[in-house]
Specification:
The chain is mainly alpha-helical. It has eight helices and two strands; from the N terminus they run E-E-H-H-H-H-H-H-H-H. The chain has helices at residues 23-51, 55-68, 77-108, 114-132, 135-145, 158-197, 205-219, 222-233; strands spanning 2-7, 15-20. Strand 1 and strand 2 form a beta hairpin. Helix 2 (55-68) runs antiparallel to helix 3 and helix 4 packs parallel to helix 6 (158-197). The chain is elongated.
């Protein structure tokens, strides 16, 4: 219900004052809360995407791959981040689909409230993080948080699970990167030894080894092996 009042003043023009009562005011407040929640989710969405998905492991491994090849700007950072994002969407597709069907759709249709939608939607994400989190890392953060009555990993709160998941992802990414780095390091040592034996001490070994590393990477179909191993690492 709308009420319009006019306030007259000798020095000012008459301006209408609009007040809302009843159901209209309640609807307006609900809409403002929803808009506030939407902007909040949008502001923290990058952090959620980076820290609670497979993005961390992928981007770290691809960055180490570029370094091991002796390349500084190729592929560019935009390509590495873009590839990491699309691989993240590919890996997280089942989780996103579950959240959309079981939480988002019922909430938009009014079947469940926002609290219920959060409880349902967070479960697939927690399941993904629990599968990738090492038990030692989880125990470390549970111990530091001083939480009691934790009988299984499923009882761990989300705010404790997230940092444990991030640390586990970094550990796994470094392990994969070491395995990728090792053959290129051996090639650098071989080239460096050959240059020293030939007395070519002033010639940078990386300049000579770079073409051989690129040739080796192409011959073994390196992108196929690296991307395939990364994706498969989330299903083991």
């Amino acid at each position: 219900m709308l009420k319009v009042k006019s306030f007259k003043n000798t020095s000012l023009l008459a301006l209408p004052a609009i007040t809302m009562t009843g159901h209209a005011a309640h609807s307006q407040v609900s809409m403002l809360i929803q808009i506030l929640l939407i902007f909040t989710v949008i502001s923290i969405a990058p952090s959620i995407l980076i820290m609670m998905t497979s993005f961390v492991r992928i981007v770290v491994v691809l960055s180490f791959l570029r370094t091991s090849l002796g390349l500084t700007t190729e592929p560019p950072n935009q390509v590495i981040i873009g590839l990491s994002l699309f691989l993240t969407f590919f890996i997280m597709a089942p989780v996103i689909s579950s959240v959309y069907k079981n939480a988002y759709v019922p909430y938009t249709k009014g079947f469940i409230g926002i609290k219920k939608a959060y409880k349902i939607g967070i479960q697939p994400v927690r399941g993904f993080m629990l599968r990738q989190t090492r038990l030692k890392d989880l125990e470390l953060f549970v111990k530091m948080s001083k939480i009691k009555n934790v009988k299984s990993p499923k009882d761990v709160p989300t705010y404790v699970l997230v940092p444990a998941f991030i640390v586990s992802e970094l550990t796994t990414a470094f392990e994969i990167s070491f395995l990728i780095y090792l053959p290129f390091l051996i090639l650098d040592l071989v080239v460096s030894s050959l240059l020293m034996s030939m007395g070519m001490l002033m010639l940078p070994p990386t300049m000579i080894s770079l073409p051989f590393k690129l040739m080796l990477f192409v011959m073994v179909n390196g992108w196929y092996l690296v991307i395939g191993s990364l994706v498969q690492s989330f299903h083991t």
